From TrEMBL:
Protein name listed in UniProt: TVP38/TMEM64 family membrane protein
InterPro entries for the chain: TMEM64, VTT_dom
Organism field: Parathermosynechococcus lividus PCC 6715
Transmembrane segments: 12-34, 46-66, 78-103, 133-154, 161-184, 196-215
Keywords: Cell membrane, Membrane, Transmembrane, Transmembrane helix
Subcellular location, record wording: Cell membrane
Keyword Cytoplasm tagged: no
Pfam families registered for this protein in UniProt: VTT_dom
Membrane topology designation: Multi-pass membrane protein
GO cellular component: plasma membrane
Chief subcellular location: membrane
Length: 224
């Protein structure tokens, strides 16, 4: 039977990842993590520590598998489009790396016992082995890619964490920038009533979703 192979972690790594998981569970239920207004109010109340607190909060949420769609929008609303994109990209990348490490080191044995025999895991391992950077980049750029599930899935492969981190960082740029733009434009709409930035950001988000699907269909060979 095919088995996953990856290095065993040091004790300090396990303690760190365990602390992250406990922190995520202690911060509240899933409904709290998905409450946009509550998160904006909380982060804004941190004042000068808002940026650092936001990055840590986004990273922890991603590491424990919480859907993070709202977080880039929150960054855009709080820090503006440019800096919001920067901080959201940092938080998302750190969270993706932490989730990768959790799957590889904390949940490795448990997952191997339950899903190592599934064919999709064989396919994933083969794809990563042939062109790891480009495969991860393509997955990150694909629309409707389940971000949290993908993070844990890649942790079950033998891909080096450095390659995973680099491809993830680059692949997340289009979606993070677009969602941060949408958050900043939404904040402008609420404060000034100007609808144009929000409409432009919504159009960009629609393009980000539709264009990859159109390109895939265009590249697919025509059947006669």
């Amino acid at each position: 039977m095919w088995k996953l192979r990856c290095p065993r972690p040091k004790g300090s790594t396990l303690w760190l990842l365990g602390a992250i998981a406990l922190m995520g569970m202690s911060l509240g239920s899933l409904s709290w993590w998905l409450d946009y207004s509550a998160l904006v109010t909380l982060i804004r109340s941190w004042g000068t520590y808002a940026v650092a607190g936001y990055v840590v909060l986004f990273a922890v949420a991603t590491a424990v598998g919480v859907p993070g769609t709202f977080f880039p929008m929150i960054a855009g609303a709080l820090f503006g489009w440019v800096w919001g994109s920067v901080w959201a990209l940092l938080g998302a990348t750190l969270g993706a790396i932490l989730a990768f490490l959790v799957a590889r080191y904390c949940a490795y044995d448990w997952l191997q016992q339950r899903i190592a025999h599934h064919p999709w895991l064989h396919t994933l391992q083969q794809s990563v082995a042939s062109q790891p950077f480009w495969f991860i980049l393509a997955v990150r750029l694909a629309p409707f890619s389940p971000f949290s599930l993908v993070n844990f899935g890649f942790g079950l492969t033998a891909i080096p964490v450095t390659v995973y981190a680099a491809a993830t960082f680059i692949g997340l740029i289009p979606s993070i920038v677009t969602y941060a733009w949408l958050g900043a434009a939404g904040d402008t709409l609420l404060t000034t009533g100007n609808q144009l930035p929000f409409l432009a950001a919504s159009l960009a988000l629609l393009s980000l979703t539709v264009l990859p699907l159109w390109w895939q269909r265009r590249k697919r060979p025509t059947k006669r």
